[in-house]
Amino acid sequence: MTTGRRRVLSGMQPSGLMHLGNYLGALENWKALQEQYDCYFFVADWHALSTNYADTSRIRMFVREMLIDWLAGGIDPERSTIFIQSRIPEHAVLHLLLSMMTPVSWLERNPTYKEKQEEIREKDLTTYGFLGYPVLQAADILLYKPDFVPVGKDQLPHLELTRELARRFNDIYKTTVFPEPKEHLTKFPKVVGTDGRKMSKSYNNTINLSDSEPVVRQKLKTMVTDPARVRRTDPGNPDLCPVYEFHNIYSPQAVKDQVNKDCRTAAIGCIDCKKLVADRMVEQLASTWDARAKLTQHPSRVEEIVETGSKRAAAVAGATLHEVNEAMKI
Question: pTM, whole model, 2 decimals?
Fold first, then answer.
C-alpha cells in the first residue's frame, strides 16, 4: 500500500468497550484523515497491559470489539492500514533498544506517570512497564516514520519525548534513521457521560457503540439533567444540562434552538427533551449498528482485514528495524 501521500499513525488501547467519547473524540478524526493521508491505525493491546496486567481475561474480546467498531464506524481497510500491535514483534524489539538509551529522569517527568497513580489507586502502577510505557509509545510511532501523529494539546509532552528519543538515537549513532514526527493537533471534544462527568470507562457512565437501541434509550432516560430543575414546572438552564450537550452534537439547529427556549420556560420537560435527543442519536447511529451486526456475523472478514493490515505494517516495521540494527551495528 505504497502511496505518495504523507503518513499518519495513531493507536488506541483496548481497555474496554468503545464509547461515544472515543468515537467523537478520535474515530471521526481518523475517518477524515484517511481522505488525504496514508494512515496506519493500530490496536495497542500491549499498552493495555500497563494498567491491566493483573487481569487480562477480556483483552482479546476488547480487541475484537474495537476492530469491529472501527470498521463499522468508517475506517476503510482499502485506504488505511489496520493492525494489532502485538502481532508486530518489532514494536517490542525497538522498545527494548530505545530503553537502553532513555534517561530515567525523562520518564519520571512524564505528567501522566504520577497523575495516573493518584487517579487509579486500586491498582499497583509502580511497575517498570508503567514507567516505561512512553518508550513503547515512541517505538510504536518511530517504526513507521509518520509525518504526523494526531494528538490533543494534553498529549504533546508524550510526542515531544518521541522526538527527543529520535534525536538522541540519531545523535548517538551518527545517523538519520528517525525523522521527527510532527503533531497533527486535534480538538478532542469533551463528551459527557450519563452522570454528567466526562464519559469514561472508569466512571461506568458510557454509551457504547455496541449498545443496542433499547440500551441507548434507557441510558439516556436515566441521564442527569440540570440539578436545579427538580419539578416539571421548574424552568431549566440548558447551559448546565448534560443532555443539552448531546443536542449540540446530534440535533439540527432548529431543534437545539427550540429546546433551548422551551427548557428555559418549562414548556418542555426533561423526559421529552431526552426522547428528542435519543431519536436523533439513534438515527445517526443506525448505519453503524447495521455494519456492526454484519461484521459480528462474519468474524473471518475482520480477521482477514487485520491479517492483511498486519502484513503491511510488518513490512514497514521490519525495514525500519533493519536500519536500526545497521546503525547500532548489531
Answer: 0.93
